[in-house]
TrEMBL record:
Residues 34-297 form the Xylose isomerase-like TIM barrel domain. InterPro entries: IolE/XylAMocC-like, Xyl_isomerase-like_sf, Xyl_isomerase-like_TIM-brl. This is Xylose isomerase-like TIM barrel domain-containing protein. It comes from the Bacteria. It comes from Streptomyces rubradiris (Streptomyces achromogenes subsp. rubradiris).
Length: 300
């Protein structure tokens, strides 16, 4: 019998339904996502891209309540490595998302660094490595963001290492954690993105467990990943090729990750995200049902 993972609160996200953008003809309508995520057996969701779900708090709260759903987090994208010049624009974006996140009763804001190459076009936007000055902008900027988001909205930021961003590999993630204040900045460990970039999620939890404040659960198909690496494919085309796969078919094995997270002795959200943009509208629900069943078999 699987260990009972009573500190892990499982949910899913619009991402698992192929939603990457606030409005896109390839995506299912928001009300279908809410219907299906509830039908699949999840109690918790993330807001996804700001503007995909209704942004009026009263309307969204009503839609969620009718489906017995709760919100675990909102998500923002930032480019704080670019320094003070982007702060005002960043804070305006963060404020909109944080306001809605707080209104939904959530306590976390997932912060994703900006991409150095375009998700859709594969255009190289910036060098993949930051300069020392940019690293300082990134780390000090995230600390400032963590402080102000907590002071203003009562939320904790959890920074999300992500493929094709400057925060991706084990070396980059550990450098970031070592350079930031643990009281202000925690990590959203995405098991799929970390594996995609060569990292070991269990090792990270065992080494930096006090910094892990949130989990995204996903897996990578190792054969497709090998092709992606060999061909130097950007993340968007890699997803279209199926690099992020349905558990338990890929890596990392999620059961040891969940056990390691349970061992931290704190309550953690573990939100399923299987990147599938774009995808056929009838594909996500059966996958979501099977994934929820699989996670229950792991004790979550």
């Amino acid at each position: 019998m699987a260990q009972t993972l009573d500190r892990i609160r499982v949910g899913s996200a619009p991402d698992s339904w192929g939603v990457w953008f606030p409005d896109d003809p390839h995506q299912i309508p928001w009300h279908r996502f809410l219907d299906e995520v509830s039908e699949a057996g999840y109690d918790w969701i993330e807001l996804g891209p700001y503007g995909y779900l209704p942004t009026d708090p009263a309307r969204l709260a009503d839609e969620l309540a009718r489906r017995h759903l709760n919100v675990s987090a909102g998500t923002v994208f930032t480019a704080l490595h670019r320094g003070p010049a982007v702060w005002e624009e960043t804070w305006a974006h963060v404020g909109r998302v944080a306001e809605l996140t707080r209104a939904m009763g959530a306590r976390h804001l997932v912060v994703i660094p900006s991409f150095w190459r375009d998700d859709k076009t594969a255009e190289i936007l910036e060098p993949p490595e930051l300069t020392p000055e940019q690293w300082t902008h990134l780390t000090r900027g995230m600390e400032r963001l963590g402080h102000l988001v907590r002071e203003t909205y009562g939320l904790d930021i959890v920074v999300h290492p992500h493929a094709d961003t400057h925060l991706d590999t084990e070396a980059h993630v550990t450098r970031f954690l070592d350079a930031t204040d643990s009281r202000l900045v925690s990590l959203c460990l995405d098991t799929g993105h970390y594996a995609y970039c060569g990292g070991d999620s269990v090792k990270l939890i065992e080494t930096y467990g006090e910094r892990v404040g949130y989990l995204h659960l996903k897996q990578v198909d190792p054969d497709i990943l090998a092709e992606v690496v060999a061909q130097g494919l950007p993340f968007g085309p890699a997803v279209r090729r199926g690099v992020m796969c349905e558990p338990p078919a890929g890596v990392p094995d999620l059961a040891p990750v969940l056990r390691a997270a349970q061992g931290l002795g704190v309550d953690l959200f573990a939100i399923v995200e299987q990147d599938m943009y774009p995808c056929e509208p009838d594909r996500p629900l059966p996958i979501a049902v099977r994934t929820r069943r699989f996670l229950r078999s792991c004790g979550a």
